[in-house]
Description:
By secondary structure, this protein is of the alpha+beta class. The chain has 2 domains: 4-254, Orthogonal Bundle (Hypothetical protein af1432); 262-328, no CATH class. The protein is 48% helix and 9% strand. It has helices spanning 4-7, 11-19, 36-55, 60-76, 82-85, 94-112, 117-129, 138-141, 149-155, 158-166, 172-180, 201-215, 227-235, 244-254, 319-329; strands at residues 262-265, 270-277, 280-290, 302-304, 313-316. β2 and β3 form a beta hairpin. The structure holds fe (ii) ion.
Amino acid sequence: MTDPNENNKNNSIERQIKSSQDGQDSYGIGGPARGAAFYRSIHVDLYSAVRFCLTTNINKEAIEQIVERVVQAFQENPFNDLLFLAYADAKEDYLSVHITSDVIFSVAFGVNLGLSRSDVMDIAVCAFCHDFGMADYLSLFQKTTKLTAEENILIQKHPQKSAEIFKPFFSDKIINAVIDIHEQFDGNGYPMRKAGIEISTIGKIVAICDAFVALTHSRKYRKAFSPYESIKMIIKQKDIIFDPKILKKFINFLSIYPIGSLVYLNTGETAIIVGSNPNKPTRSIVRILLNIKREVDRSNRLINLLDDPMLYIRGCVDSTEEAEILHFLKPRGENEIS
Ligand SMILES: [Fe+2]
């Protein structure tokens, strides 16, 4: 079994580097300090459960056990390392990595919404199940040229295929939400062309996380977009694909510079967004990475921008600059992952 983290050569590494800096326990803001290894083991076990169910057979108990661990991790610590690991890009086995990241973001969003544990569990299972039907269309999924009309009709069968696979195992509430993932708020989605309130809330919650995960991961035909570029594209689909209420909550959860973004502060320092503050989408919680001389800042300073009105985010590091910063960090080798 390949560890998804070993495959990545792009933007997830720098997030892992920062999350496993020497002696650094974990990103944890609040909650018990669990350590990077704790979250990495949940990430690897979730990925393994997805791969097992995709390649062998559906194991309901194993699914419920692993999503329970993900839910527990976020209820303990709403902004933990799993969010950074969920940016892991796949060199191969795109579908398993995609589903793994969908579960993580959907659970984190569900917990951020303050939903009950059983509702968050339903969201997690829905995110786990919804793209299994895509396994029949992997060649189309990774096609580098535009899909033909026939191919589009085919690939749009995947939600119902996923529902057929999991109907014997999970509730109608979850299975109906699985079918809703690609419905659009304006009624132009598939498979049922449902609109507005006809679409289940679980379906809407997983749908926006699924879109964010898809955009922040590379495909054969395009590079990954940065979290900031991705959330801007999602905002453009307000009232079209996404329910405006759910979208507003999603921005509140991730913030305008989404968790995982590299940003420049007005001090000239470079930081990473590690958490958000309710109803303050631009006043997030940051960890300082580079000082004003662009040297690695080893203090691991965590700053809540709400506490310091003089400090603000001057701008986002775009994906090209991000790679440069990554390159800048590496030569020193101080922050290599063990
Ligand atoms: Fe899908």
